[in-house]
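FW: tagging you since you asked about this chain on Friday. Here's the raw sequence from the shared folder, copied in full. Didn't touch anything.
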Amino acid sequence: MKILAIQFRYLGDAVLLTPALHALKERFPDSTLHALVPKEVTPLLEHSPDLQKVWSFPRVRGQANLALAWPLIRTLRRERFDRSVDFVGNDRGALVSLLCRARERLAPLRPGGFLARRFCYTKTVRTFPESHQARSNFGVLSVWGIETPAQPQIRIWADPSLAAAAEEILPGREILCHITTSQPKKEWPVNLWADFFHLARAAGHEPVFSAGTAAREQAVLKALRQRVPEARMLPAVLDLATFLAVLKRARLLISGDTGPLHFAAGLGVPTISLFGPSSPSRWAPLGLQHRFLQAGNCNCHGRTAVCLSPNSCLAAIAPEAVLQALSEALSGKFVKDSG
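HL: got it, structure written out here
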């Protein structure tokens, strides 16, 4: 049996999909499991032992370009999949599911979208949000006799051929701080990162800082460099595959609610996450070696990408609290407390 798993979402969502992919392979051990994800997501899954192949879908968010995608779709049709499961159930996933022509096409039932969307599948399932996104992915799989695990195991693999290059970039097992996200409202203010750097250095730590490759995110990193020119920064030109290999070497990651937070958890790197408008119960990494700090009440819920408060919601998290969490993590207190 050949199964195609489809997901058109963001980078972090692909990492949180890995427990469901593993459960699929366990449920159907003699099957060949493929995944179809956006091109930029491919490095997160291409070394998974659960997957026979990862297909890279060319896309521009918010735009449909069938001519660009058609050569890939034709190739997928020739694979003659027995089953496909679209974990999102949006318009793009529905059309691609139909065009790939698996005999059984499964998806969650979602409101909205174009009128014929639900007819692109052979079966849709009404699902209910779980407390954590990694568990929510299992809702649609219940049709195939797959139950939601109590503790989903999130796992990704870095490209082993990039280990030497990663060691040159991050020679030791440093503490890595990723200071940006795609949404400014989720970012801890630069002045607090600078204050944390001074506190950490005084405590004997030398944090290394990184940011996303977008121009705005690199501008945030530049602003931090101006405040603490002595701090080490990762190169701005790292592709995702190299960044994963570097991140795997980190002793611990500190970041907001963003893709690299989930990358670190998937790679087995302990994390401290800083949450403001998003829900840690839904998005914080699972497991004993992870801890989150919550900013408290926040006005930034909804679709806005920027903070709506006069002062940043995340500014309520003090650098001293982050340093305390770091000290506890390095001493093993996270696991002890959880035990």
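FW: The chain has two domains: 2-144, 160-338.
HL: agreed, and The mean pLDDT is 92.
FW: great, closing this out.
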